[in-house]
Amino acid sequence: MSEIWLAVDKHGRETISPNKPTFDGCEWEDCEEIECEYNVSWQIGLPKGFIKKLLGRELTFEDSPIRIEEE
To answer: What pLDDT is recorded for position 33?
Structure first.
């Protein structure tokens, strides 16, 4: 089963990612540390308003990320 996660950062940027973003105290992030040197972000930016078109409602920074599952 595949899933994607939708989230909005504190600047209103909409993102999509393959893993559940975690809140680091400032932002919702989906990233991992590789070899203790690099942080790789798995998030992709979406056009403004895309999440509302998909969900039928706004998603804000204060909201938890939303999971969309493949049926």
So the answer is: 63
